[in-house]
Every structure is written in C-alpha cells, then in structure tokens.
Amino acid sequence: MIAVPVSVFDKLLPDLIFAAAWRQGFRPTGALSPLNSYENRVYEIGVEDHPPLIAKFYRPGRWTQEALGEEHRFIMALAGQELPVVEPLLLNEPAEGSPPTLGRQDDFFFAFYPRVRARQSAELDAEQRQQMGRLLARIHMAGEQFPLRHRLLLSPESYGYASLDFLFTEGFIPEHLCRPLESVLLEAVRLTEPAFNRNVRPIATHGDCHWGNILWNDKGPLLIDFDDVISAPAVQDLWMLCSGSPEEIKSQRKDVLDGYETFRAFEYESLALIEPLRTLRIIRHAAWIGQRYDEEIFKRAFPYYLDDRYWESFLLTLKEQIGLMCERAA
Quick check: is 225 catalytic? Predict the structure, then answer.
C-alpha cells in the first residue's frame, strides 16, 4: 500500500471554510475560488448581499496565536495612520485572546479581507519608485513605535544557522554534495555576521517587500501580505525593490531613497547588509521548500528540489554570494 503524504491543510475542506464565514455573519453562496498562495491558503468566497470576501487561512504551526495577533495589530496600526494597506475585516466572533480581526475555526486561524481593485506592475518609473520609498518610510516610522515581542528577529541565527540545521538533518541534499555544501554554507552564514554586528537598529518591518506584494491603483502603491512581519533593519524592506545591472540598481535605489528621506532619515551604513540579507534569504528559501515538501503543491512548484541540478545551482549561487560579500568587505 502506497502511503499518501499528509498535508497540514488536508482538513481545510469547503464545509469548514463556509462554516467560518457563516459563523462571522456572512452567507456564502457556495462559490469558492482558490487564489495563489504556497504558505497559507487563500480563497475568494462569494457571499450574499456583500462583495466577495478574500479568506486567508494560516498554516497551522507556523506562527503562534500571539504572533498572528501581532501581525494584525501592526496592520491595524498602519491603517489607523491612513497608510495604504489592506486591513482585515472585523469579526463577530474573533478567537479568544486575539485582536477583533483574527478568527479560529477548528485547527485553523483565519482572517477575512475585502477584495480590492488594484494591479501588479513590473515596470515602474522614477516617480513610482519615489512613491514606494515614501510609503516605506512612513511604515518604518510606525514600526519604530511598534516593538515586536512575538515575531522573529532577522539574524544569521534565525535565518541562517537554523536553516542549516534543517538542511543537514533532513536528508534532502544528495550525499555526494553534503560535504562541499556544508563548507560553503557555513562560510556564507559566517560572512553575514559582521554586517549584523554593526549598530543598525531593528524595527517592525513588512519583511517580504518584493514587487509581488505591492499592488497599484489610481492613488499609488498598496502594500499587501504582512505574513512575514519581522523585526529587522529598515533596509530589509528596500533591497528587493531594485534589480538589474549595477548601474540600474544604483539608479533605482536613488529614486527609492529620495522618496524615503522625504519622511525618514535612512541609515546608509545599512546598505552593507544587502548581500548578507540576500544570502540569508537564499538559504532560508531552500530550507522553507524542504520543510513543506510533503505537500503536492510544493512538489509541483519545485520539481527539481531532490535532483543534483537544484543543489549544484544552489552551491554555485552561494559561492557567488560569498564572493560578493568578500568584495564588499574589502
């Protein structure tokens, strides 16, 4: 008999999703459309006498109830300052001990959001990048006043060494690549440490601020998906916004920082963190895939994860990152 992999979301069936909506005072029509999400499960739910809901069911076991509540309180604090974020809807029956926007149905914490009309944009001009800089500065001003007590502190330990512990104990790496990868991974994480030892202040940040989490409407940018809210240097929310050749990155970064400094001074010494942050993200991403690889959605999205080619490419990428970090440190 072939064992069927068990997913933490196997119990998240339509009846449970609709029951959560009914309990909060909505009347589902039966229309249910899954939306793109690997980490959590997100659906559009048709409801009577109300615009469709966007329902987000959180991955069980990833965050504590306190950490999820902290995410919601941060979003509500930003919305309270009229910043363009998508605020979760108030619930009739929130989970006990949680903010009024976080619910629980059986094993799943969830939130409902309004459907917004906005679009992603891959091509931005200088003014749009400045707009994004201004928005992030205002978010970081709020983040300075919102100490996080239940979320991760971004560090070589939390993103780097913790990921290494997983990668070298779970057996995903081909045996013949274990020794060279272990050596390179340890060196890569070690090289991130000096930049974090500098006096750069961590604050509450979005944590995963790439273009896929930014929507645009007639008023400008709209920041979504605060699932990775984290205590980190402000540059964590800026470095993923710039890409291309070194000249293009320099120009884009200038636009973003010109907008940013309209509201908040930027710690330019934190630019030394960009390659260490990129390195830690690459390592953590590899561990993240492995931690969820019993789920079919991850096997379909990352079909080469168990093959030599994935880990050989991973090894090459880390060697390149080591070279960049050494170059910046020289």
Answer: yes
